[in-house]
Amino acid sequence: MTCNPGWEEIQNELVPAQTAQDRPDLLARVFKSKFEELKDDIVVKGVLGRAIVYVQLHKAVLKHMIHGPCEVQNPRSPCMKNGRCKKGYLKIMVNNTWIVPYNPWLLLKYNCHINVEICCSIKNVKYLYKYVYKGPDRVSMEYIDARWVCALEACWKIFYFPVYRMYLAVFRLQIHLPDRQQVRFRPHEPIANVLERSKKTMLTEFFYMNMIDHDARNYLYREFPKYYCWDYKNKTWTRRRSHKKVVGRIYIVSSFDGEKFNLCVLLNHVKGPTGFDDLLTVNGITYPTFKQAAKQRGLPENDNNIRQCLLEVRDIQMSLALGRLFATILVFCLPIGVRELWNEIYPYMVEDYQSTFVTTETHRIILQHGKHITKYDLPISTGECDNDSTVPRLIQDELTIPNVDEELTLIEKLNNDQRVAYETIMTIIDRKESMIFFVDGPGGTRKTFLYRTILATLRKAGHIAIATATSCIAITLLLGGRTMHSRFKIHLTSDATSTCLISKQSNLAELIRRATIIIWDEAPMVNRRALEFLDRTFRDIMEVNLPFGGKVLILGGDFRQVLSVIPKDVKVLHLKQNMRSINDEEFAEYIQHIGDENEPYIMDDLIKLPPSMAMQWEGQHSIYNLIDQVFPGLQEHANDARYMVDRALLTPINDDVEQLNAKIISQFLGDEFTLHSFDEVEGDTQHLYQQEFLNFISPGGLPPHILRLKTGALIMLLCNIDPKVGLCNGTRLICCGCFNNVIDAEILTGQYVGQTIPIVGIYLPDHVFSHGQLYVVLLRGVSQSTTKLLVQKGRIPEEEGVHTRNIVYKDVLFPSS
């Protein structure tokens, strides 16, 4: 359907001397209303029926539905390509040679171009999807590569009108307790017939199929319609012959429905049950209720989980670890009955340490999360936690950060670029001037090495130097580091006028006043508003109307990885020498070409990968070949921490990560442990969000609902629990054991943690889709021989080798970088 600027609704609203092209907002709204009416005519009223001919129809066809002419009559027509019409006209028809297929009733009613065809051929389907998924028209200009959006299309998007809508086949699944299924009958129907017919339901037949079909036991109840089809007449499940995608949904069951709700929970977690009794049986014991069975499987959350967690740790860990876990639970879990929990666990926490040390350590963990131990119902006085010094603890902690001997010798190891940057920054500090620096350098140029040198020099001289980073894994490489949001209380979501949550009379404000320098690593990763918040806050605290209150601020990062957010009035310091891949200069140069978009393109955005790195895609077994390349002899090295820390598999999409993890976990020896998350929406007291829905989604930054582990498997921490001891977002650990409520894991240590990975495998089931993604993933490697890429769609017709996409917005890179 194409908008007709001559519609009366449009023309009547135009003022004198105004044309329809001057009112894109009007065009969008009128077209939207007519389009909605068209859908109602077709879907609800079913007007695509018998055709009736009118005199007006002939005029409408001539005006709106004529294609061309083209071919010999007009060889310069836009539809001509290689001497032929791309649309296939002339059509072999009688008298309608140049007519686009249409429906007379719709054409007469809407008086605009409406192409009506049955999508029965692949060409028509491609034509349809081209319009559904096409973006703004792309145009190559002399100086920039731009996208052109017409005013009408812009208004359509501004008004949030939908571009397309697709309806999936959703199959609703019945759920009922034993012999509590819904019964339907006709008046005067014999009761025996009613009972016989009601014995079979979707759920009972699901149980029956699991008894007779071994393959059926691999699926949950909600997954069953994807592989089996329900026969309504015979009330049986049969194996699905077509590959039609069907989404199974169990009828909504409220948490207030008791046993029925717990039955629903079990059906969403237990594969292949053969009956209600099978669901009630756990570890050979049959429980009388579904609630008890679900509880034994660890599915519903209950108040006893926290207590059982602490008791399990008591048996496997030392008292210090128990105390740290207790403090972590106070901060993140908000348990009920804190005093009773403390009284039960406290004797075990002081077995190996003095009570004051346990109290101090507990308070330290609580304090670093912005809370105070006095806020909890604990038998601890304020005097046991606070010291007598007049210097705030926050400032004491910064002044007492220990300088490792190795840190003090770093200045001797600076290369030329690093030394120039170091001396430039130190000169500004010695002169007590104000300046904002941005340290720009590709990954591997040792920006962190430069930061550590500056921090060690200043702290040795008695200065306060605040080290921060956007991600927590980066701050583990800086002594005394904290995330920027944690250190300066930056809002995660705020408006353009917000500031950081720092009072001018607070200890944190005093720390900012005393600080000589502030370092912010990975600055390009943050939203620009975070910089604006910090700027306004520092100006207010310092009472100086200069950028960032006149402080010396060092921002660091690499615009080849993410897009720019840095203001233009900063002093840029460039680091160019790649120190990570110093033993493979060819690899370092190749990565630099990728990041700078200097690697030649074969076609579109596709580049050719070096043969030494690329693996040929030969089917799904190629994934196992990649795993063997990265983790050779996995079963023999399952508990070898050094072996694990030197290897990793990387892929851009979370769904692909889960598939890779499942394949790798299956290769470990031993029993598999299955853990389930407790999902809820904060403030949802009415239980408006169903458990099934919350369990199904996996937002970025959160683990999947079902976590499957084996001893020796790698784990990545997804939140900042205790950065001081290395437990932060991105920390890699190795699983040493798994219990009902506790995962026993060891932090992987080594020079490569958080930086590079000696042996890395990269799996790309589809090409990268954002600026700098290929560059970032290649930076994890150290050489071509130990970096392997498996690209599923890497073949180009008539071209040898493996190819993949490299997306770089070159305009955001610094010219001299």
TrEMBL record:
GO terms for molecular function: 5'-3' DNA helicase activity; ATP binding; hydrolase activity. It catalyses: ATP + H2O = ADP + phosphate + H(+). Keywords: ATP-binding, DNA damage, DNA recombination, DNA repair, Helicase, Hydrolase, Nucleotide-binding. GO terms for biological process: DNA recombination; DNA repair; telomere maintenance. Its EC number is 5.6.2.3. Residues 413-569 form the DNA helicase Pif1-like DEAD-box helicase domain. Its cofactor is Mg(2+). It comes from the Eukaryota. Residues 692-734 form the DNA helicase Pif1-like 2B domain. Residues 1-56 form the Helitron helicase-like domain. It is an enzyme of class 5 (isomerase). PANTHER family: ATP-DEPENDENT DNA HELICASE, PTHR10492. Belongs to the helicase family. This is ATP-dependent DNA helicase. It comes from Quercus rubra (Northern red oak).
